[in-house]
């Protein structure tokens, strides 16, 4: 009985020690698991930091490459704009030389016409002076005939005067015919010059229109390229790119239409100014007699309208730099 009690006591004490040992073992195992988890978490954090740093470096590198590409695009755009300015200056210089050449030819032609007109006026005046002298001679002969009173001489003088009158009439008719020939020749020359002037105006208008279309096409292409570059149109899909290009095209056509309307308004204003000038010249023409050359109104209007067309053609070739930036 005592031995049994001792055994039971030993077993009880052993169970307590075993439970304590089990608790310590569990605590050690839990601590080891916690340490391993912490180590694994730290390793994962370090790996995550490495990946984040790598991604950050990649983003920085991509940003630098993108900025470099943008700088290259801007540099190319600036070079293209400078090249366009050079070509525009060349076109302006060619247009200016053509205009100066036309002006010089027109001035020479006007001087030639003026010289011919003065020559014809002088010949006309000389013919009139000859007629006056002949008529004075005729009057003198008539007075002499009256002074010499004799029937035979009177009849002879009468016949002589009739002969002189007939000769004068014949000369006047010949002079009238010659004057008509001169006027017809002057009319044909004037018609030919007006026809040449009309042809030159048509050629100049076609050239001006061609230059304007070329300038508008260049302007349209540059604005389309600028809009596409500003909106990064190459990064869009096909549908968005097509819609954006249509919007850009409408915007460019709107700018071109505004430029055409402004050009027409300027031309109408300039023509109105010319018409007012012609009205003033008509009102005060009597005060200016002797100071102005004899130029027909149609020729003067044509000359002024040519200057208006030339100035309008110069305005077409002018580009506003801010519209391309």
UniProtKB/TrEMBL annotation:
Domain of life: Eukaryota
Subcellular location: Cytoplasm, Cytoskeleton, Flagellum axoneme; Nucleus
Chief location category: cytoplasm
GO biological process entries: cilium organization; meiotic cell cycle
Record PANTHER family: MEIOSIS-SPECIFIC NUCLEAR STRUCTURAL PROTEIN 1
Species whose genome carries this gene: Oncorhynchus tshawytscha
Keywords per UniProt: Cell projection, Cilium, Coiled coil, Cytoplasm, Cytoskeleton, Flagellum, Meiosis, Nucleus
Domain Trichohyalin-plectin-homology: 144-269
Family to which this protein belongs: Belongs to the MNS1 family.
Coiled-coil regions listed in the entry: 56-83
Record's protein name: Meiosis-specific nuclear structural protein 1
Gene name of the record: MNS1
Protein function: Microtubule inner protein (MIP) part of the dynein-decorated doublet microtubules (DMTs) in cilia axoneme, which is required for motile cilia beating. May play a role in the control of meiotic division and germ cell differentiation through regulation of pairing and recombination during meiosis. Required for sperm flagella assembly. May play a role in the assembly and function of the outer dynein arm-docking complex (ODA-DC). ODA-DC mediates outer dynein arms (ODA) binding onto the axonemal doublet microtubules.
GO cellular component terms listed in the entry, alphabetical order: motile cilium; nucleus
